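One record is kept unedited as follows:
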Amino acid sequence: MSALAHASAVIAQGRPLRLVCYGSSTTEGYGASDPAVTSYPAVLTRLLRACAPGGVMLFNHGVSGENATGMEARLPAVLADRPDLVIWQTGSNDATAPDAADPAALERFRTLTEAGLDAFARIGADVALMDIQYSRNLEAAPAMPAYLAALHAIAAERALPLYPRHAIMRGWVEQGRATIDAMSPDGTHMTDEGYAWLARSVADWLAPQLGLVPGAPDVSA
């Protein structure tokens, strides 16, 4: 059975997919000219709507600067939107916090993430995790690899899909498609162009898991 079996069934039945994008500044769209239009969740939604027969309803639960503790506090509001599919972007602010290198902080991150996943499972929502971005500030954070590894371990243990954002963004740089500074001019956040790249990449990764062929509309509209 697909890890996204519930969301796939919703789409196959021609019902609108209730998509929650949950996370911090990447999800909110910090750095975008108009987050309601050019953030990665907004662009991703347009791409999925182009191929999902019942449409897609987006609920953007991104809040800049939040770590796992802040996300835990917002979880009831996220659950209230009754998501079919959650794309949960997390780990970046925990990895750059002053106490990030403390083993207790890493364990807290893991515990809160596991608790959130349990809460989504109880309401029957599918979850795909998104790991940490590749950027100058995150690469300079000594604890970042530990949080990246923790996310991958959680996904593996629970057989959850994980969008490997860090590896994909690093690949763009290594392949010469972009520079690390062009992708994230402030060292952390993306521009409209970067968010569009991210959204297209997520759509290409996600659509086959949902039984869809990603469309190619004008993502700027």
Notes: The two ends are 35 Å apart (CA to CA). Residues 216-221 have pLDDT under 50 and may be disordered. Residues 5-210 form a domain with the Rossmann fold fold (CATH 3.40.50.1110).
